[in-house]
Structure formats: structure tokens, C-alpha cells
Amino acid sequence: MRDERDGLDFDVVTDDAETIHEECGVFGIWAPGRDVARLTYFGLRALQHRGQDSAGIAVGDGQTVLVRKDLGLCGQIFSDADLAAMPGKVAVGHVRYGTSGARSWEAAQPHLSTIGDVIIALAHNGTLVNSDKLRLELIRLGVPFLSDTDSEVAAKLIGYFTEQTSHIREGIRNAMEMIEGGYAMALVRENALYAFRDPHGIRPLVLGKLDDDSWVVASETCALDIIGAKFQRQVRPGEVIRISDDGVVSEQAVEPRACATCIFEHVYFARPDSVVNGRSVYSMRYEMGRQLAREAPADVDLVIGVPDSGLPPAEGFAHELGLPFGEGLIKNRYVARTFIAPTQEMREMGVRMKLNALPDNVEGKRIVMVDDSIVRGTTSKQIVRMLKEAGAKEVHVRINCPEVKWPCFYGIDTAVQSQLISARKDPEEVCDFIGADSLAFLSLEGLLRSVPTDGYCDACYTGRYPVEIPPAFSAGKFLDGYEPQNLSRASRASRMQIEDVLTSNEEDE
Ligand code: SF4
């Protein structure tokens, strides 16, 4: 596919199933008098690394909500004319990497839902672990579905409760009591923006200010920077923020639970220029590299990183040991996953579609290659081989996080443990498999020392899951001999029938 709308020469498609993929990015803006569709477009461009399957923008114009969404990248989907045709004062946007549901137009977000004569559009990042139960109950209650995504379940559940209570805020609050998992959501109606986050704070969401009357929410601060908004604070776990002509109103909709922010955001997902808890992601990754160098030094001629997320830790690793740091792998930035199936020939080209070795820098050298993770091992194997073919004498692999041994159920696509090489092999065996001269992983303690002190989810390294995983959801996803640990129980409401939640709330009052 070629798209020259914004100057990109966009030719090639790969489906790199070997690495962990970004999840989704959400953006929302309340800015009367401004071009909210265009500002949302810019916000989504800053969040494009979080999802490349599809993108969408929904705008509230005071009367109704208009949505434009499609498969592909932001630059492919939205033309000047599209954005100009969406005037309004409030908008949400979404970039998607599908972890739940197929890659289809219907699965693209924001999801539109009609509640009586009110239209809402929902943008969701994360995964709901009890969406199957909720979907079946909603279908039993006569609610129709267009896609198989958990995001549509959330939109329809909010719609159901809103109809029952006649208040969107109540609809959101009741839905948050029932849904379990990791989520950050932005919702727009014709005249208001809502933003809310799961009670553990697993998925990120920040609040920014554009001027006295204009507010922004986004998955990462880099999306605030691009439109000149100033970071205010994180949306709190379990909080709902409503922004409208009445100003900004915050409500603790559900009790916060033990903080469990996804630590993989810092390792891999977030952009290095984003800031979390006052620290840039770049500086955290640099520190991970320094810790890694202390734990697993190597006597080499050059330290390189696998672009992009492996570059800051590689720099930190090199500086800690006083070694040269340089480029050894060049990334083709114009390759992305889209809805076009790759050909067999493309599959065989594999990782070469995205990376190429730089013989000038690596030939005849002993090299440390720093990467963010090893998932199935096949990508690492290809990169090591590529470096050796380019003349590297030795390739020592260093990973700036612990071994990924457990599947993630909160928005990342590592949902089957048998696919994770470290769940089946010890580091020595993984080293043999990828053909490296040595291999070491950063310890969990070293990782935690590199990031701000906060509560983290580290389940993909430890099997300690902050949100209870329903047996039906995890069935067949763990290898024999692995016993996951649930750190909390699902909420009382989530174990009820949908129609009983309102009655129960009335009784509690
Ligand atoms: S399991 Fe891993 S990737 Fe998933 S939310 Fe927890 S830390 Fe993040």
C-alpha cells in the first residue's frame, strides 16, 4: 500500500508476531473555540507508537457526536478535509493495537453507542478480564454487539447503566464497579469529556492543561507536549474526571486498590520523552542500563542498542563501564503492521524488514547488544545472526528487564505462556537458542531501583497478578507447573448479575 498524503512512502507491511506489541493510546480534549479534531490528530500522531492497527477521532459539537475511524496509521486515515469537517469543542481519539478482538473496522475505536437520544464515543486502552461474562449478560438483556472487543463491552455497559440511571456519570461509576482488568478510558458526549482509570492504575492516563478553559487527557505526556499543553497530574486510580462548561469535576468513583502501574511501560511501551512521576522514560531506561552493567558487565569493544527502546539502556550500560556506545543496527521507520496480510516472501525476510546491521561499526568487534525484552526468542536470534553476518566477532546480549515468563492479561499481547521462551528455557538455553556469546537479564531489584518508587505490576516477570484472573479467561494459557498468584479478589459487583448491581447500590445507600 502506498500513501503519500503526508509525505510518507508507505510500502511495506510486516506482521511481527515475535515481539511484544504496544497496546493502545487514548487522547481526549475539551477546548471550546479551538480546532479539537486537528489537535486530537496531533495528539494521536504523538501516540502512534502505541498502536498502528487503526485510529479514530470522535468530536462532540454540542448537538451530537461525529466519528471518523479506519484501519491504518493516523497519517493514512485523516485528510485535511476530514478534520475540517469535524468542528466541535470536545473530542476523543484512539490508536489501536488489537489485544482483544479482530483487526476490523468495527473493532477500531472510538466506539459509538446510542443511549436514548444521547450518543457517546469511548476510547479504551487496556484489557477487561471479565468482558466475556459481561458480554453474555448484556446480550441476554437485549444489547446488540458489532465487534468482539472488550472495549465495546465497556461502552455498552456504560450505556446500559446510563439508561437505567439517566446519568452518564452514574453509568460510568456503575460500569467501573463491574469491570475488572487494566484500563484507561476517555469518553465524549456532545457537550462533555470524561476520563477514568482502573482502580489499580495499571494503564496510564495523564491530565494536562492547554489554557484556562482547555484541558487534555492522554496516555502519555508526549501527546500533551505536541500541542503545547502542560502536564497537571495523573488521573488517579479509580477516579472519574468530567470536563464541560461547568469546569473540571473529579470524583473517586471506585475505591483505589493497591497501586500496580504497568512497569513494562517504562521498559518498552512509553516514548522516551514522556515523563512519569517526574522522571523521563529516557532517564529510567538509561538507569536500567547502568544497573545492568553493574550486574552483568562484559569486556567488549562496542555497546549498541536495538532501536528504539534498547538505545537509552545501551547508552547507560556503556557509560557505566566506560565503553564506546554507537549505532550497530539501523531501523527502517516506515515499516508498520497494517491490515494487509504480509506475503510469504515478506515473512521470510522477517526482522530484516525493520532492522539492518551497520557493518562499518560492528565488523571485527566484540559487541554488547542491549534490548528491552526477549519474548519468543526468534527476533533476538535473527538480530544476533545479522550482526555476526555483518562481521561482529562476538555478540553478548543484555536485556534491561527480567525474563518475561508469564502472560499479561491487562492489555499486552503475551497471553499464552507457551509462547514465552523464558517460561520453557533457562537463560543458558535461551542464549544457545539465539546464538549469542553470553546473555544476561536485569534483576527485578535492579529494575525497581531504576524507576520512581511507586506500586508496580510486575506479573509478566513474577506471576503475581494484581487483578484476579478469572479461570475461564486464563484457561489453557499457563504451562503445567506454573501457578499464578492472584494478589486481589474481584470486586463484589463484578461477581453479580448486571441488573442486580443497581439494586444492591440502592440497598447500600
Ligand atoms: S503483566 Fe507485565 S505487561 Fe502486563 S500490565 Fe503487568 S507489568 Fe505490564
UniProtKB/TrEMBL annotation:
Recorded metabolic or biological pathway in which this protein acts: Purine metabolism; IMP biosynthesis via de novo pathway; N(1)-(5-phospho-D-ribosyl)glycinamide from 5-phospho-alpha-D-ribose 1-diphosphate: step 1/2
Active site (UniProt): 24 (nucleophile)
Sites where the protein binds Mg(2+): 309, 371-372
InterPro entries for this protein: GATase_2_dom (IPR017932), Ntn_hydrolases_N (IPR029055), PRTase-like (IPR029057), PRTase_dom (IPR000836), PurF (IPR005854), PurF_N (IPR035584)
EC numbers: 2.4.2.14
Keyword Magnesium in annotation: yes
Annotated cofactor note: Binds 1 Mg(2+) ion per subunit. Binds 1 [4Fe-4S] cluster per subunit.
Family matches, as SUPFAM superfamilies: N-terminal nucleophile aminohydrolases (Ntn hydrolases) (SSF56235), PRTase-like (SSF53271)
Cofactor(s) this protein requires: Mg(2+); [4Fe-4S] cluster
Keyword Transcription belongs to the record: no
Transmembrane segments: none
Keywords, comma-separated and alphabetical: 4Fe-4S, Glutamine amidotransferase, Glycosyltransferase, Iron, Iron-sulfur, Magnesium, Metal-binding, Purine biosynthesis, Transferase
Catalytic reactions on record: 5-phospho-beta-D-ribosylamine + L-glutamate + diphosphate = 5-phospho-alpha-D-ribose 1-diphosphate + L-glutamine + H2O
Binding of [4Fe-4S] cluster, residues: 262, 408, 457, 460
Pfam families linked: GATase_7 (PF13537), Pribosyltran (PF00156)
GO molecular function, one term: amidophosphoribosyltransferase activity
Domain Glutamine amidotransferase type-2: start-end pairs: 24-246
Record's function text: Catalyzes the formation of phosphoribosylamine from phosphoribosylpyrophosphate (PRPP) and glutamine.
Family per similarity comment: In the C-terminal section; belongs to the purine/pyrimidine phosphoribosyltransferase family.
Protein name, per record: Amidophosphoribosyltransferase
Organism of derivation: Olsenella absiana
